[in-house]
Amino acid sequence: MSEEEIQKNQEKFDHITDAEISYDSGKGLSEETVRKISEEKDEPEWMLKKRLQAYDHFKRRPMPDWGPDLSDLDFSEITPFMVAEGDQADSWEDVPDEIKDTFDKLGIPEAEKEALSGVGAQYESEVVYQNMKEEWEEKGVIFCDMDEAVQEHEDLVKEYFMNKCVPPQDNKFAALHGAVWSGGSFVYVPEGVEVEIPVQAYFRMNSKGMGQFEHTLIIAEKNSKVHYIEGCSAPQYTRNNLHSGCVEVFVGEDAHVQYSTVQNWSKNTYNLNTKRAKVQSNGTMEWVSGSMGSKVTMLYPSSHLNGEGARANHISIAYAGDDQDIDTGAKVVHNAENTKSTIESKSISQGSGRTNYRGLVRVSEGASGSKTSIECDALMFDEEATSDTEPYIELKEDDVEVAHEATVGKIGDEEIHYMMSRGIEEEEAKEMIVRGFIEPIAKELPLEYAVELNRLIQLEMEGSLG
Hints:
Layout: H1 3-14, E1 21-24, H2 31-40, H3 45-60, E2 82-84, H4 97-106, H5 108-113, E3 118-123, E4 126-132, H6 134-137, E5 142-145, H7 146-152, H8 154-160, H9 172-180, E6 185-189, E7 199-204, E8 211-212, E9 215-220, E10 225-233, E11 241-243, E12 246-251, E13 256-264, E14 269-272, E15 274-279, E16 284-292, E17 296-299, E18 302-305, E19 311-320, E20 325-334, E21 340-349, E22 354-363, E23 370-380, E24 386-395, E25 400-410, H10 413-421, H11 426-442, H12 447-461
Parallel strand pairs: 3-7, 6-9, 7-10, 8-11, 9-12, 10-13, 11-14, 12-15, 13-16, 14-17, 15-18, 16-19, 17-20, 18-20, 19-21, 20-22, 21-23, 22-24, 23-25
Antiparallel strand pairs: 1-2, 3-4, 5-6
């Protein structure tokens, strides 16, 4: 990639739009703020009650005292709800020009042209564009934003939303999310329907000091299949931003769900999410994620294998540059017989960056015949970079198979010299090593996302590999 191409790619993520804001909740969080958000959305009484209960949990729960340092995160400086001028559009041409310009630079229209089943785009706190291709709507597939789902599919949302999977009392940030959530995606796939091409949502924080709290709820009924892709970004600011989304996935019997994420937050963003799936008999849940760019990331997608023969695959790549702390991992709970999980984690740290794998695999009593395999590989560029691995394995059943492997390495001088002796420039040689290192992750993504992941890591590396 040439210097000009690198500069253009970086500019598309750093681009800041001067869009008109129609509503701004102001900095800080209070019961009045929570009530106002619900009022603005004209929500039913049960949702307001759920928000207020979540806010009560948030106030009572202490900040996490483990993992990355969160002492610089000041909730009183975060704006939890902000809405750009204009209504949600069904046609891309109807999105306001100022907002459309941002997503044009990020490639959302091009993504839709790649024959995706559906595309959604969220700007600040609300979805600005949503579209589902007619052929899937005719088969009963629902793909809409969560705010619409509360109004149009109330019974389904009331049954599943922060109830059976991620309750607000789960952790402090889940409680915060439950109080002020806005936007996100609702996906429902009926029994026996296989959505053959992915649906995509893109989340963009544009304003300084704001919080984004989108909620994604996916329900895949028996013998169904869907692949959901999520992209996230934000420009760089001097004030901290907070992203605290929540993902709940319900995988029915013999169903298959893949959830892919490529996140490129700015270096002033705290990325603190809760993602969890409940998987029934012979169902399969796949998490594929790339995390980079943020000041702090705490992200541990979780799979609860509740039916016999259920499977979970977790694949992740994390990149930490100077002054970044990327703490990621996976959690899998085997609650039934003959369940299987695989976890593959790769991390790259450079300069003063820190990556950490933090994982938990629990095999419950009675989950005989379960199998799990964990592989964690870390690559460091220099002496200052750090990488840690903290795997926890809890076995309450004897008849299980467990495999764990962890490696930590540095880019060796011998490898570089060998490649340079073959006429390859030093920086290109290092980039080739990194591309080879992340290849097992990239191959699990659709082509355009794999290309984007490589580009993002190349942008992170540019100028840092002296």
